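[PROTEIN RECORD]
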Amino acid sequence: MSIKSRLDIFFELVEDPRSQAHITYKLSDILFMLVCGMISGCTDLEMIIEFSEERINFLKKHTELEEIPCLSTLSNILKIVKPNHLELCLYGIFNNVFETKIKIEEREISIDGKTICSTASMKEHEQPMHIVTALLIDKSLSLGQKVVESKSNEIPAVRELLDEINIKGAIVTMDAMHCQKETAEKIVNNGGDYVLQLKANQGKFYEDVYAMFEDKYMDITDKECEYEIYSTIEKSHGRIEKRSCYVLNEVAFFTDYLAEWKGLKKIFAVKREIEREGKKTKEISCYLSSKNTTAEKLLSYTRNHWQVESFHWLLDMNYDEDESRIINKNSQECLNIIRKYSISILKRYIENNDVKRKTLSANMRKCMMNEEYMESVLKYYCHT
């Protein structure tokens, strides 16, 4: 089965709202062109068009395109494509090809929001466009997303997202904004477990927990019996970082709060001690979890949460997403989805093939400059 035939099975999931009697460019061909441009590191629609014009023979080989659509045509199509259909299509390809099914109890899902900064100055946006993403850790795969007008609307958007994705048996990690009783309850009701960072928005509970993990108590040997402790030390580029996880052996002290936080089983703290160029810094963060597990695992969950933040950083570093001048909200969301899946496919390809340079940007450049390499990535994508 050809690359295009394989992809068309999934591209057909995307509804084409255009009148079929007056179509010059098939939607599946447009989507294929956009994917090719994105895995080659194109940062905007103009660049995708220029790249496609240089690769017209390649595109003719895999599509019915006889010429490359102009900017207005491409823009108009992105305005009407339903983002949820596009997401379903790309997730279907990734899940089918790479068999992302992993043990239920090992799935980690990190949820975080990212603002597209350029939209702050656009008249169509009352406030900067903010996209909340649920990322399957280790696979670097977006499971779903919600668009809101500002970060302040992120809490209800996350709760909607938790109802739309499958979190059964998974560990869900979120930052302190989402340390909310209602959010914790929704995660447990939907069959998942949570790891939530505790912050001052929880008032007296926050104060009581931090009092149990004051640095002076952690450093006293005879107090260590109160905690299960696990530590790691990382050394790189002249920087030494020690992370220690202290898990309370007994949470009965917080009986008054246990009834309010559904499923709460573990209260723990992570102390980060960093030494660089002779200077030392230290910070303590406290967490709540419904997962009855070890200090080692709890530390790994908090450590892995940074991957969703790293994923968002890649969108800016490789696609200049924060500088995107796309005005239309629907178009912005569609392009965000394609960018995320392009990152996922390239990361997966790099991990499972013998490539000389492991960075995402290096492989994007190679796709742009080497037609055969781009075809090898697409073939791997399509499992042909």
Observations:
- Strands lie at 108-116, 129-136, 141-148, 171-174, 193-198, 227-236, 239-248, 266-276, 279-289.
- The longest strand covers residues 266-276.
- Residues 59 and 292 are 52 Å apart (CA to CA).
